[in-house]
Fold this protein.
Amino acid sequence: MTATEIRNKFLRFFEEKGHQIVASAPIVLKDDPTLLFTNAGMNQFKDYFLGNKQANYKRVVDTQKCLRVSGKHNDLEEVGVDTYHHTMFEMLGNWSFGDYFKEEAITWSWELLTEVYGIPKDRLYASVFEGDEKDNLPPSTVALKIWKTLLPDNHIVFGNKKDNFWEMGDTGPCGPCSEIHVDCRSDEERAAVPGHLLVNKDHPQVIEIWNNVFMQYNRLKDGSLQPLASTHVDTGMGLERLVRVLQGKSSNYDTDIFMGSIEETEKISGQKYTAGDSKKDVAFRVIADHIRAISFTIADGQLPSNTGAGYVIRRILRRAVRYYYSYLEVKEPLLHLLIPGLAKQFSDVFPELQAQLSFVSK
Ligand code: SER
């Protein structure tokens, strides 16, 4: 399956389960003082969770452009060095606003991964919140019970507040979560070290792909948790990681999402990408990643500048330039040459880049 087919299958699966397909919100946030950029699919739905606004649809599905380069969720230094973190990434999400809850969310995620996408069940692990004394939060017994009907005990791990209690920022809607991890190692490696020992241990082949958050609280400025009037579901699956698993690759950059930009950079630089750890290979990955963040952010209205959100984009732009200048020996501007290919690749799902091609390139 191509990345486009994988994205569409996600949207159709939930559409068939009564969800309305909605568009991604802009990656740039102008009306939320707690965030510079959209860092999760749930940002645009924050007011529905808090009960400040009524949702038009109780069930929604989308793919959201996200940027995790500032504030609580910041992955910038990992990007390009490893093979599975990104500045901009697509978060596939299904949403319940005061409608279905844990039972449906968990069983549907299982159905989609194992029956529709065909991921072998013995490669999947689920994590469950163990509770937290300081916040007076109980362990997630309901999620545990549901997972026990789907997975053997040694495929369920318990996680603390850091991994299994999701919060958007210092304040705002939050709740316990259940993550789904995939073990992509070889059979020999899996026989030698069981996968549950590697969940959430930064192993490049045992990676989280999907987070199911059960929104139950609002974190207030004084640090306390206030129960929400209704409960909601917020799930987020990284498209780039899912595609890598389904395309049987060991790196997100070897999928059809990034290969176009990498091949274009090879042509321009006359250098070869060898998918290794050399500075040159890191440079190829940095460029393929950063060009997406820069292009889509500018298309959504944030130019590079020397303050605030604009400065974050300028830093990403500078990091990309520094890598091609220093490690690919390219001394002329390169990034703008990658934009037409990118715009074409995303024209069916994010047509805003194609529409502003010459502006963004300039
Ligand atoms: N809000 C959760 C996350 O960003 C799930 O979508 O991981």
Summary: Residues 40-42, 93, 166, 211, 213, 234-236 surround serine (CB under 6 Å).
